[in-house]
Amino acid sequence: MNHMMRPIRSLTLACVVVMAVLTSTVPRPARAASAADLTRDSAAELNKLYARQPSAKVLGEKAKGILVFPVMVKAGFMFGGQIGEGALRKKGKVAGYYNSVAASYGFQAGVQKFGYALFFMSDAALDQLDATRGFEVGVGPSLVVVDEGTGRSITSNTITSDVYAFIFDQKGLMAGAGIQGSKITRINK
């Protein structure tokens, strides 16, 4: 019996060591972002996105609102999660603050940092953001995640979806950043 327990103990110990390493590499903010931080960082990241992706600027000029999450942190080992805070911008000014959280499971291990922006192209899509107790990405208005190939073909005449998403500044040890299933909720700052 004792020799049969060794592989289980070894596997358990390996999992504990990997989780300890992963959690020690997750950036830990000393405090939550302030309203001023979110306002400044969302504007800066949006301007960087416009410089890298001209299609984002085209969408930004037509959008009813742009929700920018400057920094999302994703970490996991089999089970994972991601979290971040952002600002909703309407006509160049902040109209509210939001958090974005998601959980996942499956084959995954690592830590990643990224940001994303949602461009709400209609009043109805923007209204849905606060109509429920948590807007879920991928449920409700039609959503297009824009990559570089799709981005090149967007013009003011080809905008047909309710919401466009751009993921930017991916860094870290985890493959892929996803926002599908993220729950977005308004917060007070």
Name its key features.
globular; 5 helices; 189 residues; alpha+beta; six-stranded mixed sheet; 39% strand
Topology of this structure?
Blueprint (H helix, E strand, L loop, with lengths): L1 H24 L9 H18 L1 H9 L2 E26 L2 E28 L2 H9 L3 E2 L6 E3 L2 H5 L10 E10 L10 E5 L2
Parallel strand pairs: 4-5
Antiparallel strand pairs: 1-2, 2-5, 2-6, 3-6
Helix pairs in contact: 2-3
Structural overview:
By secondary structure, the protein is of the alpha+beta class. β4, α5 (148-152) and β5 form a beta-alpha-beta unit. The model is unreliable at 5-31 and 148-158 (pLDDT under 50). The protein has one domain (31-187). 31% of the residues are buried. It is globular. Strands 1, 2, 3, 4, 5 and 6 form a six-stranded mixed β-sheet that branches. The termini are far apart. α2 (35-52) crosses α3. The protein has five helices and six strands; from the N terminus they run αααββαββαββ.
Tell me the major beta sheet: 6 strands, mixed
- Class derived from helix and strand content: alpha+beta
Outline the low-pLDDT stretches. Answer: 5-31, 148-158
Per DSSP E runs of 2 or more residues, the count of β-strands stands at 6
How many separate structural domains?
A: 1
Mean pLDDT: 73
What is the rounded Rg? 19 Å
Cα-to-Cα separation, first versus last residue:
57 Å
Give the helix level as a range of percent.
Answer: 25-40%
SSE pattern, N- to C-terminal:
HHHEEHEEHEE
Strand content: 35-45%
Q: What is the number of helical segments per DSSP (H or I, 4+ residues)?
A: 5
Overall 3D form: globular
